[in-house]
Amino acid sequence: MGQAQPKSLPDYDTVEFHVTLHPKQLTAFDTPATEVLFGGAAGGRKSFLMRVAAVTWCIAIPGLQVYLFRRVREDLLKNHMEGPKGFRAMLAHMVNAGCCDIIENEIRFPNGSKIYLCHCKDPKDVYKYQGAEIHVLLIDELTHFLEDMYRFLRNRVRMVGLSLPPVLARRFPRILCSANPGNVGHLWVKETWISGHEPLTIEPQHDSEGGMLRQYIPARLDDNPSLQEDDPGYEARLSGLGSAALVKAMRDGDWDIVEGAYFAEWSNKRHVVQPFEIPKDWTRFIAVDWGSYRPFSVGWYAVVGEDTLIPGTNYHMPRGSLLRYREWYGVQTDPITGKPKANVGIKLDVKEFARGIKARSIPDTSDGIKYAYVVVDP
Question: Where is the Phage terminase large subunit N-terminal domain (predicted)?
């Protein structure tokens, strides 16, 4: 009886995988950064990029294990498996040629590479992946995830024993995430990638932050001209969301706008001004929200005495507007990363707290300024 012959691998050169990526998508695909957020406006073709990257890297790297996550299973399948640009349509010719198989929520390649489609509806679901060796972690709509969920999945990202093509050396293992502003993860995603970080700059991270090369790549609607060609009315529908905050977030990718926030109309461009000399005759007061085990906030305010042009802008501050010109926020920070610890105060006693307010008021009191009143919320 003759021995069974091993199945030969398909010739990928004869079964072409052709896709078109626009410049911003190519930036996210080719970056040497290993922890990337490609996020911002809706319609930036972020999900499509993830599918292209997953397939391309699986073809190029034998044995690669790619995990693609969304929070809800139904969203995962509808967005990535079905539809005219989903995996089934994208890979139909490769399946027919024997270059890959789609079996339930897995895409398998003859070279041993796999794409797993995963979901974590509940925070505890991340523990299903405790033993996983994730070479490439793709998270679609990262702002749907809690920070602890992301950190747990990130700690599963590792790679041992795979041979990388020279052009991909030192670029794996890697993480690529997409996100729009808003939802439960808005604040931590903004803090991690957006606030205080220059777009496109690659920042090496401390071990306590995963030790990877982090980068934020902004995505805007006009970065995807294909959408304008295929669906020219899409931008108008975004503008018709109704809520000004949602329009700015989804159409413009504005991370400073949060639907449901107390000040939903907040905009750094409009509500944050460059320092200027405040007239001494404007009414001043202090407002205090006390906390010890929880954070406290102290604000020094001036009441605008007359319509005033904001220096360097075309905006005017109307008479009676409040100008918060100094603040003291008492929150614990991580000693290594410097990031605030959520809802953890610095535990000052009342006397220390009072001395802190007095010391921070010296620039005013030494200039002869008196406060009209102090308001304290106990």
Answer: 87-196
Helices (H), the chain: 23-30, 46-60, 73-76, 87-90, 92-96, 147-154, 186-189, 225-230, 234-239, 244-252, 268-271, 350-360, 362-365
Alpha-carbon gap, residue 242 to 240, rounded angstroms: 5
As averages over each run of 10 residues, the pLDDT of the chain (378 residues) reads 40 62 90 94 82 94 97 93 91 92 94 96 95 97 94 95 90 95 88 91 92 93 71 70 70 69 65 88 95 93 91 83 95 79 86 95 94 91
Q: What is the pLDDT of residue 213?
A: 97
Buried-state track 78-90, b at ≥16 Cβ within 10 A, e below 16: ebbbeeebbbeeb
pLDDT of residue 268: 72
Helix-helix angle 46-60:23-30, to 10 degrees: 40
258 and 345 Cβ atoms separated by less than 8 Å: no
Report which of 256, 296, 304 is spatially closest to residue 276, judged by C-alpha positions.
304
Q: d(Cα 117, Cα 54) in Å, to the nearest integer?
A: 11
Whole-structure pTM value: 0.72
200 CB neighbour count, 10 Å cutoff:
13
The answer to whether 286 and 361 are in contact (CB under 8 A) is: yes
Place of tokens 């602890």: 148
Give backbone dihedrals phi and psi of 311, rounded to 5 degrees, phi first: -55, 135
Dist CA 218 CA 275 (whole Å): 28
Separation CA 347–CA 352 (nearest Å):
10
Give the number of residues written for the chain: 378
CB-count exposure of residue 206 (10 Å: 0-12, 13-18, 19+): exposed
- Rounded-to-integer distance, Cα 64 and Cα 8, Å: 19
The string of DSSP letters for 301-347 reads EEE--S-EEPTTSS-EEPTT-EEEEEEEEE--B-TTT-PBPTT----
Q: Of 185, 217, 187, whose CA–CA distance to 201 is shortest? A: 217
> Distance of alpha carbon 213 from its chain centroid, rounded?
15
Q: How many other CB atoms are found less than 10 A from the CB of residue 293?
A: 9
Q: Which two structure tokens, joined as six digits, stand for 320?
A: 């009676």
